[in-house]
Amino acid sequence: MAETPLFSQLASVNPALSARLKESAAFLAAPAATRLSEEQRALILGIARRLVGSVAGLLGGAVDVRALWDDWAVQGLPGAAPVSSLCFARAEEHRWRNQPVRDVGETVPPRVIAADAAIDVPVAAGSPPTAIDRAYLALQIADRRRFDALGHPRIAIEDLDLDLLRAMLLDIAAWALVRAGKDSAEAARLGEAVRGALAQHRPDRGIDRAAADYHAALATAGTLADSAAAAIARHDWPGFVALAAATHEYRYDAMALALITAEPAQLAPMLAPLVRDQAALVTLEGSLAMLPGRAVASAAPDDYTAALQARAALFGEAEGAA
Amino acid sequence: MMAERVIRGRIDRSGIFVSGDAPLLRLQQRAGGGEGRPLALPNLARLVALAQRLQREISRPLIAADDHSDIHALVRIMPDAEGATLEISDWRMGPVMQSQIPPVTEIAAVSPRAWMWESDGQLRLIALTAGAEAEPVPAEWEGRSLSELFELQPDGDGHFAVLRALARQARFAGQRVRTDDGKGGRMVMTLAAEPLFDAAGGFTGFRGTALPDDAPQPAPAPAALTDPAFGSLPLSDPAFGRRIDGALRGPLARIIATAETISGQFDGPIRADYARYAGDIAHAGRHLLGLVDDLADLQNIERPGFKAARDEIDLGDLARRAVGLLGMKAEEKGIRIDAPPIDDKMPATGEFRRVLQVLLNLLGNAIRYSPADSMIWIRLDRDGDHAMVTVADQGQGIDADQQAVVFEKFERLGRTDSGGSGLGLYIARRLARAMDGDLTVDSAPGQGARFTLSLPARD
Fold first, then answer.
1. For the segment B217-252, what is each residue's pLDDT rounded down to a tens digit?
2. Cα–Cα distance measured from residue B459 to residue B452, given in angstroms and rounded to the nearest whole number
3. Is A109 close to B103, i.e. CB distance below 8 A?
4. What is the pTM of this model?
5. Do A107 and B232 touch (CB under 8 A)?
6. Could you tell me if B33 lies within 8 Å of chain A, comparing CB atoms?
7. In chain A, which residues have their Cβ closer than 8 Å to the Cβ of B201?
8. What residues are paired with B455 via a beta bridge?
């Protein structure tokens, strides 16, 4: 059906109307499709804003981050697709981890100490930490880099792929250069800042390396499966995702998203051989099931195009037969 | 002015939410429903189904999960031929259980000069970030011990708040420390933090703030309490109380809801004895939930500085509400309640929900300990500047010795049934006194008991 010319004319001079019409068309193309909730949108936007701010900060404070974000919030983020995938994965992981713990198992009672008892606390542990202990500490540190000072989720620079970091640095530098009036000295300075930031990139401090080290330490000790089951029982999702990711040599964020979007029946094969304990799987499945608005395959509408093609093929055959 | 407000809603015969006041509609929408769609609050839907099946009005406490809090309320469901009308009162918000990502402390939000930190269970730092206007955090802090990075200063008694908190796995505040200021000098800061626990209840560390001493300081956290009855048990520690409360309430609510579903045969008929067993489970669950409520209340009202609100209330209205809530329970035993007539008013000052709580306790006890087919009276009276409401029953009565101890903690006068925790009257009297009133008993063996709640009268 042809679009009414008047609508096209109106939209051509009104970007807001154009956007609404596109959104409306996308909605009508698949009315039953589940869409991002307001919470998901807010999380994704917040994570993207913090990421842009962090990357811009690598350029030595020469970039007005607020103006940059204001511009990009209106015009759209350059290279939005890879950034949005990362932000979406981080947002979904945050929603999962941010759920109240409702299905607690056997509760460990806290230590009971008399009010007037002498308290002797070993501040510096007597025995040196084990390799597992050190690796888990490093994993926790890498994980906490994925939150800002106020506890909001973010993507740590250390976890960014080098190519994506380079692309973002160049986009931000280009924006700053245009804003500064394409000054050649400024261009040289920004170029140097980009090179410096890339040279200082430390993926070895990121969560993927920490996950691999933790996995290796547990594998050496032969306690991988037990530790995975214990992490599930404690709802220590970063610890568990790290182990699952390292087992399959996935990125941490990809593994988290794979878990969050898995159908219940997919969990057991996905996590073999790491998780063999059915009770642990049930706990994991229960926690995931509590998360509303997950992008599991069964939540998607039927593939209408495929259905039409299948029906056309069927009818074609029937007509041919007639 | 009275704090009470009634929220109304309408459900049709097939369980569709037809209409409702804004708070109820919002809750329905956040639960994934809306107007013209099935009632999306499972606990409420079950109660509505029950009321419709019985074709009787029922009143029950309601707990519904909202996004960031739990809603606690009293719901009255009035079924009719076309569906049911809901009246929800005493709508309160309560905190939900701790999520896996602890919220940052309030100091972090109000003081941009603070550092935010998190440690593991051995006080090793796993996060250290600076607020928007804070000094930069020291380099190479990763994994170092808190006491290595911050030189701990003892308090006036030679104690270290953080170490005591570590031993008790409790919150702390006011721990003075010295640390590098990043400019070659030293600065004095104050640490405060909340303990963190995993889903299995294991202590995982602290999350808190470090605030320079020249920045505005927040109000000190209340000190941990020591309860004479519980001695040094951590029940006197608010953090422990919250954890126990949170850890028990969810599973118990689920047990009760599931047992009620089975007992009510909402999903189809089952054998009568199985339905009865499920009813027993629900009963036991409610008893345990009541005990959790009592313990939470106990901890709350024994907090130093506990004050009840001073609402303008009508004891007559509250007495009738209590009768409405417990009337069905009385009816089950054939007990008739003689409540104050609708135009009988007794203006007083007290906290609306607390007074209702006291009256529910008194009336609940009267129903529990009255013989079948007996009578309970509720009378209003005024004595000088005190307004009074008296609940009188025809039970076995309480002798003089028992009257002396009936308001003691955990006193059940030798009863061993599953009726109560032995905290209800103790809490009720504490509440009455916190509202500048009192709760007294007058009884003789074989002549029933008369409990009188008095509160400051209002003209």
1. 554 444 433 333 333 344 445 555 555 666 676 677
2. 20
3. no
4. 0.55
5. no
6. no
7. 104, 107-110
8. B387
Q: How many helices (H) and strands (E) does chain B have?
A: 11, 19
Q: d(Cα B161, Cα B166) in Å, to the nearest integer?
A: 9
* Interatomic CA distance for residues B7 and A264, integer angstroms: 39
Query: What is the predicted ipTM?
Result: 0.79
Which of B97, B99, B100, B233 to mutate to test binding with chain A, by most A CBs within 10 Å of its CB? Answer: B100
Distance CA B283, CA A38 (A): 40
Question: Would you say how long chain A is, in residues?
Answer: 322
Cα gap B395→B383, rounded to integer Å? 26
Which residues on neighbouring strands pair with residue B211, listed in sequence order? Answer: B190
Asked if A286 has any chain B CB less than 8 Å from its own CB, the reply is: no
Partner A contacted by B167 (CB < 8 A) = yes
Give CA torsion, residues A150, A154, A156, A161, to 10 deg: -170
DSSP codes of every residue in B53-70: HHTS-EEEEEEEE-SSEE
Using an 8 Å Cβ cutoff, are A107 and B249 in contact? Answer: no
**Each residue's pLDDT tens digit, B73-105:** 778 889 998 999 998 877 776 544 444 454 454
Q: What DSSP designation does B160 have?
A: -
Q: What are the φ and ψ backbone dihedral angles of A147, each rounded to 5 degrees?
A: -130, 150
Query: Which residues of B247-315 form beta strands (DSSP E)?
Result: 311-314
Using a 10 angstrom Cβ sphere, with 0-12 exposed, 13-18 middle and 19 or more buried, the burial of residue A84 is middle
Q: Which residue of A has its CA nearest to B163?
A: A121
